[in-house]
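Quick illustration, no need to memorize.
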Amino acid sequence: MTTHSPRSPRPLALIAVVLAVAGLVLLAMPHPPSTQAPADAPTAPATSPRGPSAPASANAHAADAAPASVLPPKGEGTAGDQAIQRALEASWPADLSASDERRLLAAGRDLLRADATGVGRGKWPELFPGSGPGLAPAFSTARFRIQAAVARRDHRPGRAVVHLVWAGTDRGGTYTDGRITDLYFTRTSQEGLPVWVPQPST
């Protein structure tokens, strides 16, 4: 299994939210005064770093303008995660019961960690067939971090999606935050209790 997942109508909006939060951080950073370039100096085209091209993953690197007051204090490190969490919650108001949301968030976090780092894959043998000591995970456990997550209803009956924004260091040693993954679940029942079953990526 990989972190890619079926497309939904929401990933583009989710990417826009993450990009907006990252842009706020860039806008709030102090910049040294610039000097006027000579009139005949060539002007290089503006560029921005490119993140992973996979549909379910992206780097946050540009944004729209927004009030700087929504930014966390400078130097807080993971405090930026709180801003992303607030942005997700504002973009998608809660539409599940509190108990369902708790179950889905716990399962979504565990499943993403297992997929990315290999830790806990034994809990879902049907999703990770052939996993074993010889299969190297795509990301290190050392700097893996889920920055924000929300669980919401999917547009299909009896389905839900967990939107996750996360950070990690890949096997090449590159650390990237603002990665985006959507994980889908189907509601069923076991012994009369509601259960959310993760769906394999296709």
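Residues 98-117 form the longest helix (20 residues).
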